[in-house]
């Protein structure tokens, strides 16, 4: 029998409901059971006033024949992606040179002044995708030819991302061939390539938004945070990361729908595009050990590894030198300009992170320190997962692990912040807080571009850029602290306040603990 105090306290009553494994899993949610952010979020309530104010108690929810929260979220995401494309379009403008040839207009530091820089544009030629007869991981070239630092180079991305670029290059060649016979409009090949790539990247982010909305349970409107994220406005087309976020978010949705093998297949595809989806298997293992669901985790992990091997082995066995390029470059890469290590090195003048190495040398100590710090954070997350009074939600631990990876990594490319967006929306559905962090993170792009422009060209000095980096890191660390607070005080968790346990948990949702160092909040 539950203590009488639980029934007198609504918050404690909700947590007790979450903690009890004997209660049945609720049926599919009716529209009336959705959480309306215009009632629960002051920011949304204020924004809704010009449209009539928050949702009324007697509103006919879920009656429209077409518009659902998911479709509204996808429409908003489409608008955000269009704005992102317009922001990047300045970097695919052309001009006619003195010889009458059309050229890409990157004069006078245009990518940095217009803040339209995208890796997609220079990689089209840098990775030899503009040349006929090339193939990633087989085609090579030499950097710094004729010097002691000459290096043979190959495609530098994981296999699925490399093939993604190659297929888009072939589609570009096909488009231009059809243009030559007058059936399609034409442009510079790199501009056509960028637009084709941007289309598929937009599809990847739409899948991400759709999967977040489906995984969020009775909070489908939270997907709007992913749809309209300032980070999407800036970085959706900065690199190729939305391919991985789409697979990772869909993998979490498959796990939430209790399809562990499908979840593994999707996570394996995501890991073949960017390795970060592999990080999600760690939190999943910790929670499955605590709930005694290791068999389902093994199915997911096995499918993930099998799919990753199926994509990578053919290339690794036949084009090994090209396949190893991604791992070689990551091992030899120094600290990124906006990594924590560069911040420490710049402001203290300390070169202990192998800052004096010559090009091509491996930064051994930097690799050891960054890898060791990340492993320590993973051990800490595992401890949290096993000692929390109520088993943490899957999204909470996944957010902590990915955030720890970014904070401790020697490389934090700006588009990597997209990895956190779907996880943050599911882990911390607090609109004002998340929008503030995403805005701060997106604004780092401005000093970054003007830092790259250079002081000699009226750009910003490095300390301005690194100051913004510190603010971003503090914001992400603050979100981690908030997640930890809600894990150990689940009465503050907005998802659990309405009586849910773990909408993304799949077989973990409302499952009793089998292993754990903590104790449930309420014992019947």
From TrEMBL:
The keyword Membrane appears for this protein: yes
Transmembrane is among the record's keywords: yes
Signal peptide boundaries: none
Membrane topology term: Multi-pass membrane protein
Residue ranges of the TM segments: 190-213, 225-255, 261-289, 301-319, 364-388, 433-452, 464-484
Location (main, coarse): membrane
InterPro entries in the cross-refs: GT87 (IPR018584), UCP010361 (IPR016570)
Places the protein is found: Cell membrane
GO cellular component terms, A-Z: plasma membrane
GO molecular function, one term: hexosyltransferase activity
Keywords: Cell membrane, Membrane, Transferase, Transmembrane, Transmembrane helix
Region (Disordered): 17-40
Pfam families: GT87
Taxonomic superkingdom: Bacteria
Family: Belongs to the glycosyltransferase 87 family.
Name of the protein described by the UniProt record: Membrane protein
Organism: Amycolatopsis bartoniae
């Amino acid at each position: 029998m539950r203590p009488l105090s639980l029934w007198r306290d609504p918050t404690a009553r909700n947590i007790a409901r979450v903690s009890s494994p004997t209660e049945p899993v609720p049926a599919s949610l009716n529209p009336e059971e959705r959480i309306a952010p215009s009632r629960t979020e002051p920011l949304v309530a204020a924004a809704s006033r010009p449209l009539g104010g928050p949702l009324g108690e007697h509103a006919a929810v879920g009656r429209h024949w077409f518009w659902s929260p998911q479709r509204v979220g996808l429409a908003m995401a489409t608008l955000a992606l269009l704005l992102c494309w317009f922001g990047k379009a300045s970097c695919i403008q052309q001009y006619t040179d003195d010889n009458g040839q059309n050229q890409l207009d990157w004069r006078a530091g245009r990518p940095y002044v217009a803040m339209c820089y995208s890796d997609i544009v220079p990689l089209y030629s840098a990775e030899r995708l503009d040349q006929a007869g090339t193939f990633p991981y087989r085609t090579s070239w030499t950097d710094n030819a004729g010097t002691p630092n000459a290096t043979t180079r190959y495609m530098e991305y994981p296999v699925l991302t490399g093939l993604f670029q190659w297929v888009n290059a072939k589609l570009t060649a096909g488009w231009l061939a059809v243009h030559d016979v007058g059936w399609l409009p034409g442009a510079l090949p790199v501009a056509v390539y960028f637009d084709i790539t941007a289309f598929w990247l937009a599809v990847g982010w739409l899948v991400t938004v759709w999967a977040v909305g489906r995984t969020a349970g009775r909070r489908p409107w939270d997907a709007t945070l992913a749809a309209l994220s300032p980070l999407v406005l800036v970085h959706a087309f900065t690199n190729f990361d939305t391919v991985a976020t789409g697979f990772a978010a869909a993998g979490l949705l498959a796990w939430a729908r209790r399809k562990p093998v499908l979840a593994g297949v999707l996570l394996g595809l995501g890991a073949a595009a960017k390795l970060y989806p592999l990080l999600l298997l760690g939190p999943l293992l910790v929670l499955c050990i605590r709930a005694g669901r290791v068999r389902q985790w093994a199915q997911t992990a096995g499918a993930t590894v099998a799919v990753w091997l199926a994509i990578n082995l053919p290339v690794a066995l036949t084009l090994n030198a090209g396949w190893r390029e991604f791992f070689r470059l990551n091992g030899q890469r120094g600290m990124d300009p906006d990594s924590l290590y560069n911040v420490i090195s710049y402001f203290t003048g300390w070169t202990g992170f192998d800052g004096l190495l010559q090009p091509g040398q491996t930064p051994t100590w930097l690799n050891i320190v960054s890898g060791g710090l990340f492993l320590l954070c993973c051990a800490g997350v595992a401890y949290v997962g096993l000692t929390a009074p109520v088993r943490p939600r899957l999204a909470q631990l996944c957010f902590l692990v990915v955030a720890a990876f970014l904070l401790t990594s020697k490389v934090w490319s700006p588009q990597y912040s997209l990895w956190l967006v779907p996880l943050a929306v599911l882990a911390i559905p607090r609109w004002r807080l998340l929008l503030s962090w995403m805005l701060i993170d997106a604004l780092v792009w401005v000093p970054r571009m003007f830092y790259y422009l250079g002081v000699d060209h009226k750009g910003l000095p490095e300390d301005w850029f690194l100051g913004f980096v510190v603010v971003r890191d503090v914001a992400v660390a603050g979100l981690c602290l908030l997640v930890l607070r809600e894990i150990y005080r689940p009465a503050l968790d907005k998802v659990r306040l309405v009586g849910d346990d773990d909408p993304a948990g799949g077989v973990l949702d409302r499952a009793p603990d089998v292993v754990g160092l903590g104790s449930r909040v309420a014992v019947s």
